[in-house]
Amino acid sequence: MGKNSPIGVFDSGVGGLTVVKALLEELPEENFIYFGDTANVPYGNKSKQQLFEYAHNIINFLINRGVKAIVVACGTHSSVTLPDIADQYSIPLLGVVKAGSRSATKITNNGRIGIAATSATVNSRAYTREIQQTNPDYQVFETACPHFVPLVESGNLDGKEVRNAVQEYLDPLMDHGIDTLVLGCTHYPFLTPVIKEFVGKDVNLIDPSYETINDLKGILARQQLYAVGNEEPLREFYVSGNDDSFYKVGNLLIGNAIRKVNKIVLD
Ligand code: DGL
């Protein structure tokens, strides 16, 4: 493992591409390997035991490919599995919850913060814990938005179905008088235009991706692992299920940055 080893990134599907977008913009010289567990999407309704099994299989796959760090580009794994497994591996693993919580606490004025995330993330209360560690007086309102992931996975980013789902899930959060809303599942930032229109200009939307990449920069700097002289970075994409859909929707979401998608079975 060295400076030009790749960074591993994973999610259940295309959601982690929000983090890839930030990675491409902020650290364009880095090699990376992305794994989308499309055979098991959505993660949000899976049991803890299943999620731990997926996490170990994917992390082992990435470590076997020689990654120097892993970005858990998934709110569900960042809240449910990462806190328990981060210390079990010899390379750094980082997720999106700390970053998203930090961004929210920096920007809120009234201390009323909404979290839109998967059911598994909401049930874990990871965001509430993290935010209240900064200030126990902050009030955190979490809501699960189960229809958002299938909509984004199918490239459905606007239209009646999306607008109805946004209204159904976010109306109750707005009733709590939030001034900040964390998009706590990495799929959700792809719905930002519709969500922004619904919540209005007075509510700050937090996409944890850029702050997560900032955390990654800190790790690479401390461990002297920044890529050097890497003019043609390797960018590999793997999925466990539907590769055609990942290719089409993924390219729609991140502006044709995906050249090829490799389908593999993890044991
Ligand atoms: N994008 C993931 C997350 O951030 C997974 C969502 C899902 O598959 O349900 O939670």
Provide a descriptive summary of the structure in words.
- The protein has helices spanning 17-26, 48-64, 75-80, 82-85, 97-107, 119-124, 126-134, 148-153, 160-175, 192-199, 209-222, 243-253; strands at residues 7-11, 32-36, 69-72, 93-94, 112-117, 139-144, 180-183, 204-206, 235-239, 261-263.
- It is of the alpha/beta class.
- The protein has two domains: 7-96 and 210-263, Rossmann fold; 97-208, Rossmann fold, CATH 3.40.50.
- The chain has a six-stranded parallel sheet with strand order 4-3-1-2-9-10, sandwiched between helices. Strands 6-5-7-8 form a four-stranded parallel sheet, sandwiched between helices.
- It is globular, with a radius of gyration of 17 Å.
- 46% of the residues are buried.
Summarize the structure.
By secondary structure, the chain is an alpha/beta fold. It is 44% helix and 16% strand. It is built from twelve helices and ten strands.
